[in-house]
Amino acid sequence: MRSEAAQRADFSGIRYAQCWEDADVLLAALEPGPGKHCLSIASAGDNTLALLSRDPESVLALDLSPAQLACLELRVAAYRVLQHDELLALIGSIESEARLRFYQVCRKHLSASVLAFWDGRPDLIAAGIGSVGKFEHYFNMFRERVLPLVHPRDRVRELLLVKSREERSSFYNNRWNNLRWRLMFRIFFSRKLMGMLGRDPEFFRYVEGSVSERILKRTQYALTELDPAANPYIQWILTGRHNGALPAALREENFEPIRRNLDRLQWRYGSLEESLAKDQKFDCFNLSDIFEYMSPSSYEQLLKLIVSSARPGARLAYWNMLAPRHRPESLAPLLGPLTELSSQLFARDQAFFYSALVVEEVV
Predict the structure, then answer these.
(1) DSSP code per residue over 184-250
(2) pTM for this entry
(3) Does the pLDDT of residue 133 top 80, yes or no?
């Protein structure tokens, strides 16, 4: 099999400087732990590293983009040699003027190709390596240029204060959800602008219906039913920092477990289609939202290959953003949906722009 996404989309640059899937939900879905072998889409590396916090036997990270693997490799070096607050500074979670100095400490743990990648981009290091992807630039444009046309900064700060559910709902309905907010959302989060500025246009090939309307509904849920004050994804989108609301891989209690298990992690350039042809079997599959980019037939073929590389009882977790992908009936004898678990976890998923979380188990 050849990767459909690799043939169409551009993977030459940093598309995602952070992982924009909720790692707490991922860990609850997959239950990685001692003796488990995990396969993970690398992306920027955060969720792959979060898997290490649960002491699995091994984690193999894959990606079609050398730039994304460079993000992962630099994070691995940072966990090896930096302290927790220094890691947060390098990522950009907190303000710092010392990021280039912290990078110098990490350099000796980088391969030659990744060293050349980051040495040639000191401006990205200085900005905070979690802020420099195409998707993060899209949110930066939203935060700096678009949102101020809708809401003043003091109202944004008020949105992010701790409130009860009733207070959040009242604030959203009476202070936030005005006509300018709704009009802005239809334009800035349209298929055209998201494809041009945030994601690759090819990622919308199999999407039907209004992109902005679906994301607006999920945003309302995140700002009312969930707590924006504790949401690392909303905090970053609206402020450019995490402000103490850290994703799993960056929380202090997970720092030492991840560092302790770094030697259990391997990463590899290539597609799932190529890598799953090996003999290794896995118990946990972090598949991000890769099926979003595939036709239903390509998705079904890859899912069969994944099942063939899984141990009995292995779990798969993946997200649907706009294109619905769930186990086809042809795989019913081999793969079962964990529907109740999926629904429970999706209800608390803080990476709010997805339309579904899918958790499935190999029979």
Answers:
(1) HHHHHTSHHHIIIIIS-GGGGTT--S-HHHHHHHHHHHHHHTS-GGG-HHHHHHHHSS-TT---GGG
(2) 0.92
(3) yes
